[in-house]
Amino acid sequence: TWGFFERKNKMSGSSPVMFWNFFSHLGPRILVLFFSLFSGVLGDCGPPPVLKYAKPYDPIKSVYKPYESVAYKCLPGHEDDPSKPFIALCSPDKGWNKLEEFCERGCENPQETRFSVVSDDDFLYFYPVGSVVHHICDRSAEPILGHPKRPAITCLSNFTWTSVPVFCKGKSCGDPGKPENGNRIILTDFLLKATVNFTCNEGYQLIGSPTSQCLSRSLSNNTVVWKPKPPICFRPTCPPPPEIKNGTYTGGKNGTFPLNSNVTYMCDPGFSLSGDDLHCITEDNKTGIWRGSVPKCKGDCPRPDLPPHSSLKGGGPEDTYPT
User: Fold this and answer.
1) How would you label 22-34 residue by residue, b for 16+ Cβ within 10 Å and e otherwise?
2) Per residue of the chain (323 residues), what is the pLDDT tens digit?
3) Are 169 and 144 contacting, i.e. CB atoms less than 8 angstroms apart?
4) CA distance 213 to 211
5) Of 204, 256, 278, 308, which cross-links 200 as Cys (Cβ 3.0–4.6 Å)?
């Protein structure tokens, strides 16, 4: 007998040491035998199932280990049915599980019209051929008398929807008017979802949005307003330009200096101008500022040379001396 069977427990006839010795000798052999047998049962799978309207996300392998899975995605132009599985699983004893076609070609989501939307009761994740949905008036539109209140449209075999009849009319925002010193461009009308563009006259800056749309006031208020509010046309002006010594300037209109105006400086007789004109610009569309350096009028005679150990009374290095 093996030595580890020779140790006996006086009370029970066996010893914990005996079992430990037994496992330490045969345990590894049993584990090797178990996994070798189990690996024979866990068979590999070949290529995954082929679907007509879907393909695997990842490249296909020739062999898959047990419990590996393959996820599929619909081919372009097809939609998936969320109620059906899209993952194939390699079973160790049955191979790949049966995967039904979960992709179909159907119509795209039905679109709303200017004055109507698809009823929430008919919302689906997928619209196969033959699907029927109903349109209802937008909350800021009203049904036209004598027309159906819930016209139906159908997904056709060519995967398009039948046309939606005109059965609603949007509420009106009214004429937003022309901004002072500007104009408005009417693209269609003043009804729900209409758009109006705005421009300003030359020399004026548009403050706000150049476009407004007629929309519902809020989720709880079905009245309509222009959003955003129509802009204003503002004419930035510059302050009077700086005066210069021995010179003056011309420019502006009636004592004002609008945007893009120029100021030209001139010197008194006997002086010459050093510098350029000033130009009125804006950097924030609100305030006008002068661009350019303020010129100077300099005399024709330079500063006289001084003899050694002498000084000149009055004036400074920037003074000029007219003839």
Assistant:
1) eeeeeeeeeeeee
2) 343 333 333 334 444 444 444 444 444 434 333 433 444 345 799 999 999 999 999 999 999 999 999 999 999 878 888 889 999 999 988 899 999 999 988 888 999 999 999 999 999 878 889 999 999 999 999 999 999 999 999 999 999 999 999 999 999 999 999 999 999 999 999 999 999 999 999 878 898 999 999 999 988 889 999 999 999 998 888 999 999 999 999 987 777 888 888 999 999 988 889 988 999 988 887 788 999 999 999 876 667 777 887 777 765 555 555 55
3) yes
4) 7
5) 204
User: Minimal CA–CA distance to 241: which of 269, 214, 261?
Assistant: 261
| Cβ contacts of 232 within 8 Å, gap of 6 or more | 179, 180, 182, 206, 207, 208
